[in-house]
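A reminder from the course coordinator: this example appears on the midterm review sheet, so study it carefully.

Given structure:
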C-alpha cells in the first residue's frame, strides 16, 4: 500500500483556521492509503489504516460510485490517549484546550487539517435497520448493487448525527463511525457516562474526518443529487457516543477534518462550518 496524495485545488482562504498537523507517514498510527494493485490493474481501494492494518474501505475514487465506509476484519482497536483524558470528560471551550489537537495530531499523517468543534446528538443505527442511510437515501439515488441486488453494507453499527441541505441539488449527511463495534464497549464505563450526562455533563469525543462528495453518473435511482458524506472516525469517545445515544443526550465532538484526503474540493470543505451551523433538515425529493 502507498500513501494517498490526491490532487487538490488551491486553498480557499474562507476555509477557516486550518492547521498543519501530523507526523511523517511511516510514523503515523492512522493513515489514508491506496491499495497497491498489479501494474495495469487500475486503482486500488481507498483505505483508512491503523498501525499498518486496513481498518476501513472508503468511497471509491471515481466520485460516481456510492458513498462508503466499510469496516474491515482487521479494525480491532481504538486510539484513545490517556494523557488528555481529563480534558475530555467535559466540554472544551476552545478546540485546542489542553493541547488536545496536538496530542491527537501526533497519531495522524502530516498534512493540513481543519479543526471543527460542535455538539452532536447521536442516534445509533444498525445496517438494514431503521434510519440506515445505506438502505434508505443511498438506494433512492443509486439503486441496489447491480451484482448483489442489495444495499451497500458498512459491516458496523454507526451513529447518525446531522443532515442538512447544501443546495437544491446536494444534501449533507453526517456520520460518526466507531473503530470497533459498540458491543465491544465496557458496560460499566458506558453506564458511568450515562450517569454523568443525565447530571448535565457534556463530554468531548475526538475524531479524524473526511468529506466525500458523490453523485451517480446515471442510475436507476428515483432521487438524483449529490451526497456530501461527512464521516467522523472516532479516535476517542466510543463509550461516550454509546452513552449519549442511550441517554438521548448531546456530546461534544472535536473533528480534525483531513483536507485533501476526501473526495471534495477545498471550497466544499470550506463550506462545512456554515453548513454545520444550519438547522437540521431531512432531504425532500
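Designed residues:
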Amino acid at each position: 500500500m502507498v500513501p494517498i496524495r490526491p490532487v487538490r485545488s488551491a486553498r480557499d482562504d474562507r476555509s477557516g483556521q486550518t492547521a498543519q498537523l501530523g507526523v511523517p507517514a511511516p510514523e503515523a498510527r492512522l493513515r489514508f492509503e491506496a491499495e497497491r494493485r498489479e501494474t495495469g490493474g487500475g486503482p486500488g481501494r481507498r483505505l483508512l489504516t491503523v498501525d499498518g492494518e486496513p481498518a476501513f474501505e472508503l468511497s471509491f475514487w471515481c466520485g460516481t460510485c456510492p458513498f462508503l465506509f466499510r469496516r474491515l476484519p482487521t479494525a480491532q482497536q481504538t486510539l484513545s490517549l490517556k494523557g488528555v483524558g481529563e480534558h475530555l470528560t467535559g466540554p472544551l471551550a476552545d478546540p485546542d484546550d489542553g493541547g488536545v489537537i496536538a496530542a491527537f495530531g501526533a497519531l495522524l499523517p502530516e498534512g493540513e487539517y481543519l479543526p471543527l468543534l460542535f455538539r452532536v446528538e447521536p442516534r445509533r443505527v444498525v445496517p438494514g435497520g431503521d434510519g440506515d442511510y445505506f438502505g434508505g437515501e443511498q438506494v433512492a439515488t443509486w439503486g441496489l448493487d447491480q451484482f448483489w441486488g442489495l444495499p451497500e453494507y458498512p459491516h458496523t453499527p454507526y451513529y447518525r448525527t446531522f443532515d442538512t441541505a447544501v443546495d437544491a441539488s446536494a444534501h449533507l449527511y453526517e456520520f460518526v463511525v466507531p473503530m470497533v463495534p459498540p458491543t465491544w464497549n465496557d458496560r460499566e464505563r458506558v453506564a458511568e457516562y450515562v450517569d454523568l450526562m443525565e447530571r448535565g455533563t457534556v463530554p468531548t469525543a475526538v475524531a479524524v474526518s473526511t468529506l466525500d462528495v458523490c453523485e451517480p453518473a446515471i442510475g436507476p435511482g428515483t432521487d438524483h443529487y449529490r451526497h456530501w458524506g461527512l464521516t467522523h472516525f472516532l479516535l476517542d469517545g466510543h463509550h461516550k457516543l454509546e452513552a449519549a445515544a442511550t441517554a438521548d443526550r448531546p456530546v461534544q465532538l472535536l473533528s480534525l477534518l483531513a483536507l485533501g484526503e476526501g473526495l471534495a474540493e477545498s471550497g466544499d470543505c470550506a463550506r462545512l462550518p456554515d453548513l454545520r451551523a444550519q438547522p437540521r433538515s431531512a432531504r425532500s425529493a
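The two ends are 40 Å apart (CA to CA). Confidence is low (pLDDT under 50) at residues 1-16.
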